[in-house]
Amino acid sequence: MRNLIVNGEITPMEKNSMQKKSVKDIPFIAKKGVLAVLGIVMAALCFALLSFMGRHYTLKVPVSVSVTDISQLDILLESSARSSDVSPGDIIHIESGTVEDGMLTLVLHSGERGKVFLDIRRDDEWIYGDVFYVHTGGIITINVLFGYSTGCVVIPLFIVLYLAAVIAYFVQKLREEMKLSLYHSSNVTYFSAIVFLMCALLRQLTGIFSYAGFQSTLSGFLGSADFFAVLALPLILVVSVYVTASNIQLMRREGRNWRNMLGCMLGIAIILFTLFPPILGEILQRNIEWIDVHNMKSPALYIEMIVENVVSFTAAYLECLLIGTIFFAVKAARHIPAFDKDYILILGCMIRKDGALTKLLQSRADRAVEFARMQEKATGKEIIFVPSGGQGDDEIMPEAQAIRNYLLSIGIPDERILPEDRSVNTYENLRNSAELIRRHSGRPDPKIAFSTTNYHVFRSGQLAARQGIDAEGIGSPTKKYFWLNAFVREFVAMIVSGRRQHLAAVGVLTAIILAMVLATYYLNVL
Question: Residue 77 domain-assigned?
Answer without folding.
Answer: yes
